[in-house]
Amino acid sequence: MKVVTEHRRARFDYAVEATVEAGLALLGSEVKALREGTASLSDAYALPKGTDLVLLNAHIGAYKPSGALAHEPLRARKLLLHREEIDRWAEKVRERGYSIIPLMIYFKGGRAKVKLGLCRGKTHGDRRQGIKERETKREMDRALRRR
To answer: Per-domain residue ranges for the chain?
Structure first.
């Protein structure tokens, strides 16, 4: 598995409750650009549109040799999932206030995949609690190593 890009800030800003692997419907120049590593997920999210799940604001840079046949870097890309998964996640997004955030794009078996997270936004207090837990765990590990 070759990781192309990762949304590092996602786990800090969101509480990830479930993850799923989805395929990406891409153009040829997008695949080649991904293999070069020119992608960013910083503002990306997924939304249900009709019967599909669509990845929005995922930036895949231009592939230079494609010239005039190049793709748009921020175009909407269809996500390939089973119908039941799409329906289940779309229902949660509509009713319960969840967001679908892409966590990473990678190649698996020669195919581009995206790992999606069903996320709920963290509040300031949640972030502080996470930092406090991390610091406490770090101190406990240090104390155990000293003994």
So the answer is: 2-122
CB environment 54-76: b (16+ within 10 A), e (fewer): bbeebebbebeeeeeebbeeeee
Integer Cα distance of 147 and 143 in angstroms? 7
* Chain segment 2-22, per-residue pLDDT in tens: 899 999 888 888 888 899 999
pLDDT digits (tens, 9 = 90+) for 87-146: 999 988 888 878 999 999 999 998 999 999 998 888 888 888 888 999 999 999 999 999
| Sign of the CA dihedral with 42 first, then 129, 131, and 144 last | negative
CATH topology of domain 2-122: Small Protein B; Chain: A; (2.40.280)
